[in-house]
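hey
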């Protein structure tokens, strides 16, 4: 690589630093997003010019399906890792609860529909379904009753689920979150040693295996630029809506 070449690359093309290394702020301005359903109630931190850059970059032949989805969401992930209150040192049960409640109200309305849609068999979609129930169990264990859970406002996000590529993009966000969850579990175990959470346990020792299977399946079924682009845009829509929802609900 030529001297200075790395510097010229946008940060979302660079290898993602570990959460602890995130000292830079993205400096995005808060603008209205028009890229996802229910957007009128959301604020997104996606700078319009930046969003355009991401889309242009994803359009140019991605090396793989994972590459496309990763590039389309890398900046949003980096932003979230820095701003999610549950991830900052000193976070405890109240930060976890606002994060879990927001995640639940974002995911629960479409999760069953996502996994009950047609999937290749080796995706083992049925085994991936039910994470909203994990979070609901955590909310209940923390003292929320049926009425309080029912009263949680919905995010209004309705992902496109009509094509396999779009479903892969949405699933990427949910399945990828399992990786970060393992980091969060370790962080919170110091603050809350005797506390357990079904969501934070996630796939536990099977996390890496489940992630590899997801990626392998995506690579088998998203082989051309068009489907990779479609999955990448669906991933960005899902990620952007979740990040905006976290902010709106005070979890980020
Ligand atoms: C609900 C919020 C989050 C979502 C939706 C999310 C989503 C994702 C996704 C999609 C990936 C896969 C990236 C890829 O390999 O292409 C990923 C990986 C990862 N996430 Fe998150 N994440 C979230 C929160 C966090 C937080 C709070 C942390 C850290 C405290 C974190 C740390 C990581 C790490 C360490 C990886 C592993 C792979 C890597 O470093 O590139 N995530 N996450």
């Amino acid at each position: 690589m030529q001297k200075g070449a790395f510097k010229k690359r946008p940060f979302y093309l660079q290898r993602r630093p570990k959460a602890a290394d995130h000292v830079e702020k993205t400096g995005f301005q808060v603008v209205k997003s028009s890229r996802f359903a229910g957007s009128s109630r959301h604020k997104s931190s996606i700078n319009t010019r930046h969003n355009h850059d991401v889309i242009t970059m994803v359009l140019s032949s991605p090396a793989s399906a994972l590459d496309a989805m990763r590039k389309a969401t890398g900046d949003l992930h980096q932003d979230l890792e820095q701003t999610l209150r549950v991830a900052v040192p000193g976070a405890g049960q109240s930060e976890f609860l606002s994060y879990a409640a927001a995640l639940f109200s974002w995911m629960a309305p479409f999760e069953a529909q996502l996994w009950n849609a047609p999937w290749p068999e080796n995706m083992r979609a049925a085994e991936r379904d039910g994470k909203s129930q994990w979070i609901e169990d955590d909310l209940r264990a923390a003292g929320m009753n049926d009425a309080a859970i029912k009263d949680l406002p919905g995010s209004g996000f309705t992902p496109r689920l009509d094509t396999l590529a779009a479903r892969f993009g949405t699933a990427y966000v949910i399945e990828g979150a399992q990786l970060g969850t393992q980091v969060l579990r370790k962080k919170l175990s110091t603050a809350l040693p005797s506390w357990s959470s079904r969501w934070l346990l996630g796939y536990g020792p099977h996390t890496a295996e489940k992630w590899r299977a997801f990626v392998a399946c995506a690579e088998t079924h998203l082989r051309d630029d068009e489907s990779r682009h479609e999955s990448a845009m669906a991933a960005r829509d899902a990620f952007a809506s979740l990040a905006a929802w976290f902010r709106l609900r005070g979890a980020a």
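The radius of gyration is 18 Å. Residues 4 and 80 are 28 Å apart (CA to CA).
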